[in-house]
């Protein structure tokens, strides 16, 4: 059957629309928390270990006192126990979320600082379990920590090779579940990009901490721009200072984040020289003035 030019143009338009929709869906599954055309802004949370309620739903009650939007929850407690794997604990979190009206932003594997992913097989098993927990709770990001015993050094090539190989093995599971593994460490943006390139998965990105990078003498504004859409979430801290009173220019950080196209969570992990509740309230107010809920 011969089609008219108008019919051909319409079919081409529909085909292009379908391809564009499919492409956008692929990006949304593993890309950063990109800004929608209108209305997408920032959310301010805090790490539950900073709130004194590690792996405890009561962290949400403390967060509500402060005026936060939610919390980042640690997954593994002492002895390698992962409470959030248990349906009854998940239900406790759901009840706390309903009670407080807050959100669970993301998860974290802080125990990897003591049980390193670079050398201990237990760590890889925990990461695999964390992916399933994230998917069950409808979350997108789990922080993979590399500090303390887990600290990374690019000169230790065998350890880096092991981390890369382990992440390559875990990445397909994360991709399938729509979960991002966010690497937090003391490495430079360039070194992090090297690891991400070697892993080669959109499900492995960087969890960026402006305080950690500043501690290492790095220019956080340049690093955020260098990493761009490969940043999945942010920690906000500045050594022993309250936010906005120390070394870091958060207004400049906001401009770099805009250039990176990021919209989403910033988790306070800051010092509390005057006490948790008053200082985190002040930190939250300060950040909201720079990172509003709607942009």
Describe the structure.
- The chain has helices at residues 5-30, 59-66, 87-100, 121-137, 157-177, 189-199, 210-215, 220-227, 250-260, 276-290; strands at 43-47, 70-74, 103-109, 141-145, 180-184, 204-209, 231-236, 265-268.
- Residues 1-38 have low confidence and may be disordered.
- It is α/β, with parallel strands linked by helices.
- The N and C termini lie far apart (51 Å).
- The relative contact order is 0.14.
- It has one domain (42-290): Alpha-Beta Barrel (TIM Barrel).
- An eight-stranded parallel β-barrel has the order 1-2-3-4-5-6-7-8, surrounded by five helices.
Please give a quick description of this structure:
This protein has helices at 5-30, 59-66, 87-100, 121-137, 157-177, 189-199, 210-215, 220-227, 250-260, 276-290; strands at residues 43-47, 70-74, 103-109, 141-145, 180-184, 204-209, 231-236, 265-268. With 295 residues, it is α/β, with parallel strands linked by helices.
Helix content range? 40-55%
CATH superfamily: Divalent-metal-dependent TIM barrel enzymes
Number of structural domains: 1
Q: CATH first level: which class? A: Alpha Beta
Number of helices: 10
Q: How much beta, percentage-wise?
A: 5-15%
Output the strand order for the largest sheet. 1-2-3-4-5-6-7-8
Give me the Rg, rounded: 20 Å
Structural class computed from helices and strand pairing: alpha/beta
**Shape verdict:** globular
Distance linking N and C termini = 51 Å
Overall mean confidence score, pLDDT: 89
Which descriptors apply to this entry?
TIM Barrel, 46% helix, alpha/beta, 295 residues, single chain
